[in-house]
Amino acid sequence: MRDRQGVAKTQPPDPAVQRILERAEIEGIELIRFLYVDHGGVVRGKAVSRSRLAERLGTGIGHTVAMMAMNMLDQLQEVERMGPVGEVRIVPDPATYVPLPYAPGAAAMLSDLRRQDDSPWEACPRTFLKDAVAELAAEGYTLVAAFEPEFTLGRRLPDPAGGPDRLVPLDDSLCYAATGFDTAHDYTMKLIRALESQGLRVEHYHPELGAGQQELSIRHAPALRAADNHVLLRESVRGVALRMAMWASLAPKPIADQAGNGAHLHMSLWRESRNVFAGDSPERGWFIGGLLAHLPALVALTCGSVNSFRRLAPRMWSSAYVCHGPDNREAAVRICSPLGETGEPNLELKPSDSSANPYLALGAVIHAGLDGIRRKLDPGEPAEADPDTVPGRYPRLPGSLAEALDALEADELLMEALGPLRRSAYLAVKRSEAAAFKERDVAYELFNHLRAF
Fold it and tell me: For the segment 97-140, what is each residue's pLDDT rounded down to a tens digit?
């Protein structure tokens, strides 16, 4: 900045920036990763050295616009305004700075993609969630959320038949079995310590149904922080495993004949200090009504991969029908009972997994629920039994990514919310993935999903 005489004026140092610079030096940080999530659901980024951190906290790191047209197979798609010409900046959020305990000498920050003039870029996923949160706030509401991820722990080994690498589970323990705790104990303790050191408060952990399958949930937080937390968790789950010569996959179905990995989305809606999902609140019903009305389109964003639809099958406790119900684990939207006298009720969206971009998924959920409140949509009667036992009563969710993308493209509200650039890029990326996996066998699909997620 310059004064009227053209003399450069010194800006006072930003306290948040100063704290990061001091921490980086004290903690021996040499590389700082600026992370974002692309339309394929892959966590990507660039890193800056500590010597240039002060500068890059302000300017960000240069990045080609084309990367948001890249699918999970690293195949670049033709999207207007996302070709070889044009650049954005990966601009970190200083509030998200964390050293990475599984990568000594490294730290990370979650980042926005911004134009060169520092204005928001229309294809930035994190900005999409920020805008949805702001729209919700304009109506007087705050969404609190948490992802409940499952993952498969094992080792990545060459296929004896010469095909792609495969994931061999760590154990074959039974669901919730004490032997499962013991088998994964060393890994689990390192993971929990890594998460807690990054400010992620671990709520629960247990060995799940599938071979080598684990479930670990993080304390709920405001929507943007919840999405940031899920990215940090995804990175930590895999980073800790790699440091222990193992491989962890959050892919929906890394092993075809084993239970799938979900990332159920829990949420509660607040007005001032009141949870509006408590009791027989009409707002809870309307919010559910909005989720159900847009659910066929929503799953294109909350279950954003070809592999996701191996998991979304009847009688798999992952939901396959458009319905809701109190503590019904086969319903797409479960109304969760509060825990104890001080517990708060919340909604659980079951068709959700870690192949989704959490910013797009959670932002779209907000738009759908808010639409339900604005239009006072009736969710209908709750499902009191497994919906698969009542043939023809409840609509079936899309059976493939291609079907879900068709539903998304037909959903005027969500397409409008995504905006022209983001929606055309997302549809192009995801349709290319559907086409690519259709031409290949199951082993190719499983390998590429366990590699990406």
Answer: 999 999 999 999 999 999 999 999 999 999 999 999 999 999 99
The token duo for 370 is: 């808010």
Quick count: other Cβ atoms within 10 Å of Cβ 18? Answer: 12
DSSP lists the bridge partners of residue 267 as: 145, 347
Q: How far apart are CA 399 and CA 159, in angstroms?
A: 29
Q: What is the chain's length? A: 453
Q: At what angle do helices 358-375 and 125-138 cross, to 10 degrees?
A: 20
pLDDT of residue 342: 59
Q: Please list the residues that pair with 155 across neighbouring strands.
A: 168
List, in sequence order, the alpha helices (H) in 321-453: 358-375, 401-410, 412-418, 420-438, 442-452
Helices assigned H by DSSP within 260-381: 282-302, 308-311, 358-375
Tally of CA atoms within 13 A in the half-sphere of 39 that contains its CB: 30
Burial track 329-348 (b if 16+ CB lie within 10 A, e otherwise): ebbbbbbbeeeeeeeebbbb
- In the chain, where the domains are located: 15-120, 130-452
pLDDT score recorded for residue 337: 87
Each residue of 189-228: pLDDT tens digit?
999 999 999 999 999 999 999 999 999 999 999 999 999 9
Closest CA to 253 of 431, 397, 447: 447
Alpha-helix runs per DSSP H in 318-400: 358-375
State the average pLDDT over residues 411-416: 98
How far apart are alpha carbons 75 and 95 in whole angstroms? Answer: 33
Q: Which residues pair with 261 in a beta bridge?
A: none
pTM score above 0.85: yes
| CA 24 to chain centroid | 27
In this prediction, residue 338 carries a pLDDT of: 83
Which residue from 283, 126, 284, 142 is spatially nearest to 222, judged by alpha carbons? Answer: 142
How far is it, in rounded angstroms, from Cα 139 to Cα 98? 33
What is the tens place of the pLDDT at every residue in 240-261?
999 999 999 999 999 999 999 9
Give the helix/strand (H/E) hosting 353: none
125, 419 Cβ separation under 8 angstroms: no
Yes or no: say if 410 and 427 are a contact pair by the CB < 8 Å rule: no
What's the maximum distance between 2 C-alpha atoms anywhere in the chain?
A: 79
The fold adopted by the segment(s) 130-452 is Creatine Kinase; Chain A, domain 2 (3.30.590)
CATH code at 15-120: 3.10.20.70
